[in-house]
Write a structure and sequence with these properties.
425 residues, 30% strand, Molybdenum Cofactor Biosythetic Enzyme, Chain A, Molybdopterin biosynthesis moeA protein, domain 3, homodimer, six-stranded mixed sheet, 28 strands
């Protein structure tokens, strides 16, 4: 009785909902410059209103709106030029009724002005006298002192990785440091007597270089984690247990790509069982490729046992490992993935209750006949061609542009179906 | 006559096609571990076939297919057990006609075997004798020595940023170093008398902190570039020219966010004009927000003058600056962006010939009545609500989940249209 034949395969959606290790990374303070993609541990608030003063949104003349009522080309309003506001300086010119101050875009509105007339609707008919040919309402051409951000308002939420514009907003608010979740340290180890380090120049017969660890490290980095490579462990229960124990102790997430033979997989499962409570959550996922996946929680730290085949390992880590990694990292939002819709070039079958991940290559779709495409036409511009093959072949992944997920409810897609392709980037 | 009124606005698609500065970054060698997202300068080839030896894809018995022809449950074929292949070792067991060798998944196929019978279709009826209950064809259960990669085959193309699986493939092929394009150095400078460094704790009246430079630096980093911050230059022709000259000399791309007033914009344009040949490509783009954009090439180096308002500046840099940055970086493929389709909550208008970029917030769409959604139903799951406001308000961007592009041919979208939202991440 081998593990392979008798483990209970849980559905991926069940596993993602049910497997919820408690581990979260600690909190550290980083400079704003280094905060791109980092995850705020609590909402970031603005200490002051922004822009902080009423600003002009146009080049023109700050005035009192009431003074322009009824102004037109044929019957302009006339205002005395009371002065000019300089960029970046306090507006020290007073704008009384019947007067106006020249003001550039972005400058501070003089205290008694309540609108700005665009320069396009004015003329200087004689020095010191402005002719206004269109009325303005109160607030026209003006951004309020707290229109961008109110005092104490949230400028970046907790749990969402900081984006470029968030860093811009932090800069605007004068925030120089942010409390963020530490990057999760992810132990990556490989097992298998056939697996040798990628640096091995000359392979002995029967050996393969470890491809999975390098790809996993890149995926971890991309997702904001910090890979902690633990090398290759021989198919030896004691060595494996020792390495895993150290990894669980040092890291926030442990990923083992198990040897591809049944024996090697069983040893990994046994070693994980011995690590800590509550232990193995499931052994076997209803996913293709990737069935022999193991999920465990050892003293709060998630341990993921991946299949030995590189393709399976990388597919499972993407579908199951990355969501776990993001949760450990304090991310509470859905991270958007690049997708395109495409027409499937041939039928793909799946079993009900199983999640299938089909690698595809994209090519431009045939251009529809003229007149067939409307403005909002959503007919796919791409054709997706499934790439099939044995899951030890990494070339299936390197030649793929993305993948199609056939979820548990579906039993496949017909040829010509419109499918969503998640793109590799 | 101000620059604002008389510049000729070029369409964004024209500008993207026509503005092709010659600058490309140099080539440097990086280790595979550091190569994620880096851009190979030439195709990476494999020096050897992969996996390099014929491997079993199943746990079972390596045999000669001819010996199993006609085998069934009722009339099994019988094979003598000639030995066992060990993982990671050469297959030194000879498989002659009438014999078989036990083999785990991934191990080397013995030289004279041509197929592997899965263990599920065998039984050991007495020690040393294997009963086979299903026939196999030549090649069943076997991956050929060059099935993943042939000798000399391309394993990563030039011009496409290296992905996780590409690094896995490089590892499998024993590639430890890659020749890649250097990261483009991008000078980022801001102008405007009102703009002060983000570190300024207490603002004087009329001052704003520089938000744009921080956000641009993050976008550059995200796109694989190396920001080179050049600070804030006063609205002073000489200082600006000097700073720009140094930036063009040191960097692969120069980005200036111009002061928001007309005068400041004119000064930037004048300074850029003086930098080098062929000079200004266009001043004014038919894009909203972002019309006062300037594109120039000075001695091969692209110089992009962005509008002074942070929102406009960041939109233009995303739409126009990033494609230029990627080209300079040697990227020759389209970089996939995360998108979702959504139903527009209200109509948005645009002018024909102008590209409009509308910031939107996403919310879940109303769930259709049961029975209305089919397996391949592509009805949007999201509602996109446009966010409007003055383009100096950075909060429009920080509160957005993504944006909708209304291209030059369209004059807007009706309420309820299905639109593609490009997501910020």
């Amino acid at each position: 009785m081998t593990g392979r034949e008798f483990f209970t395969a849980q559905s991926v959606s069940q596993a993602l909902a049910g497997f919820q290790p408690s581990r979260r990374t600690g909190i550290e303070t980083v400079s704003r410059e280094a905060a791109l993609g980092r995850v705020p541990a609590s909402p970031v608030m603005s200490g002051s209103a922004l822009p902080g003063f009423a600003r002009s949104t146009v080049d023109g003349y700050a005035a009192r709106a009431a003074d322009t009522y009824g102004a037109s080309e044929s019957l302009p309003a006339y205002l005395d030029l009371a002065g000019a506001v300089r960029m970046g300086a306090a507006a020290d010119t007073a704008v009384r009724s019947g007067t106006a101050a020249a003001i550039p875009t972005g400058a501070a509105i003089p205290v008694d002005a309540d609108a700005v007339v665009m320069v396009e609707y004015t003329q200087v008919t004689m020095p010191g006298l402005i002719e206004v040919t269109r009325p303005v309402a109160v607030g026209d051409g003006v951004v309020r002192a707290d229109e961008d951000v109110a005092v104490g308002a949230e400028i970046a939420p907790a749990g969402r990785p900081l984006r470029a514009q968030d860093l811009g907003m932090l800069a605007a608010a004068g925030v120089t440091k942010v409390a963020v979740h530490a990057r999760p340290r992810v132990a990556i180890l490989s097992t298998g007597d056939e697996v040798v380090p990628p640096e091995t120049a000359q392979l002995e017969p029967g050996q393969v270089r470890d491809a999975t660890a390098s790809a996993l490290a890149a995926m971890v980095t991309e997702a904001g984690g910090e890979p902690s490579p633990r090398g290759i462990v021989a198919d030896d229960a004691e060595a494996l247990t020792k390495t895993l124990q150290a990894a669980v102790h040092d890291c926030d997430l442990v990923v083992v790509s198990a040897g591809s033979s049944v024996g090697a997989r069983d040893e990994t499962a046994a070693a994980v069982e011995s690590l800590g409570a509550p232990g193995v959550y499931c052994h076997g996922l209803a996913i293709k490729p990737g069935k022999p996946t193991l999920l465990a929680e050892c003293d709060g730290v998630p341990v993921i046992g991946l299949p030995g085949n590189p393709l399976s390992a990388l597919v499972v880590f993407r579908m199951v490992g990355l969501p776990v990694l993001r949760r450990v990292a304090g991310i509470t939002v859905t991270v958007p993935e690049p997708t395109v819709t495409a027409t499937l070039s041939r039928a793909v079958a799946s079993a009900a209750g199983r999640l299938d991940v089909v690698q595809v290559r994209l090519s431009p779709a045939h251009v529809p006949a003229p007149g067939r495409r409307g403005e909002n036409d959503t007919a796919p511009e791409h054709t997706a061609t499934p790439i099939f093959g044995f899951s030890a072949l990494l070339s299936l992944l390197t030649s793929a542009d993305g993948y199609v997920v056939i979820d548990e409810a579906a039993t496949g897609f017909d040829e010509g179906s419109t499918v969503t392709v998640t793109m590799y980037r």
